Amino acid sequence: xxxxxxxxxxxxxxxxxxxxxxxxxxxxxxxxxxxxxxxxxxxxxxxxxxxxxxxxxxxxxxxxxxxxxxxxxxxxxxxxxxxxxxxxxxxxxxxxxxxxxxxxxxxxxxxxxxxxxxxxxxxxxxxxxxxxxxxxxxxxxxxxxxxxxxxxxxxxxxxxxxxxxxxxxxxxxxxxxxxxxxxxxxxxxxxxxxxxxxxxxxxxxxxxxxxxxxxxxxxxxxxxxxxxxxxxxxxxxxxxxxxxxxxxxxxxxxxxxxxxxxxxxxxxxxxxxxxxxxxxxxxxxxxxxxxxxxxxxxxxxxxxxxxxxxxxxxxxxxxxxxxxxxxxxxxxxxxxxxxxxxxxxxxxxxxxxxxxxxxxxxxxxxxxxxxxxxxxxxxxxxxxxxxxxxxxxxxxxxxxxxxxxxxxxxxxxxx
Length: 415
Description:
globular
């Protein structure tokens, strides 16, 4: 298998996207399929993807809203089922949020989309280029002013097909919004997703990306942001495991004073795999970034975390930190963690660290001596390791929903 074989233009797509298809295919010419000799993939095998057969036809059966219902969230939902927009399940968005399907874009909207689409993604993201070569539809959000209600994009997969999701978010100067990407469903699909965020000057975005799909689903995705002067991005990532789940997150601090805060958790079990690659690019002066990710790896699962801070020559007075902590709940569980600093400027303050540990026998003994059973003590310590990451969530109903999901996960994992 190779990228060029897979980079086949869709049979039906907007005419204005054809140049984008061609550019994406061109970027894949001669690119080898990743294997264990490919540095960025040496700890994550693509065999679960190549061993399966996924057809391109989508099966848009009836949706089950209970898969993504969050009580009291009061969000405005935009719902996709097997890659197809479902207006009957979607809400009307506020007047200062323009929602445009790529296939329905007007000439003016198409020009706006093309000015940003694909420009935020690093060229080295080959699955993103594959997504671009096969793209026949997607969605753009253009946000102006202050949006008081959360906007939620629901990506529900119920099929065994091959799905390409594309999201482009354009934040106007001074705008503020909360955006939730919620991946869910009962399907065993292969999803190749790409989300791009263009934050103009003084804009502020709270972004959540929740990977709660079926445990047999395969997902290779990317989340890429470009921040202009004094823009800020607050991100939360949560991923349960699967045979193959790989997420690349890049934040380019392109304007002076830009700020990002990234928090994430990953929880593979059985023989699942999950891989997070995080990169904070600092291209402008006086920017700050903070990345905090935690993993709980159970049974014979394997997790990979690669965190990178890249300080460019002109990015003076940068402050950047990266922290990764992992908890192994089994002697057969594995995690590969690799924090990186690449600095081309002396006037910076940077720090990074990574730890791998197991549950403390002393802590377990302490809780049991206070009357808790072994299962309850196990769940409490695991939950505490992750729970503090939810304290900074800007939407309390969402935090409560995630706490319930995590508690259920830990109950299933109790020894």
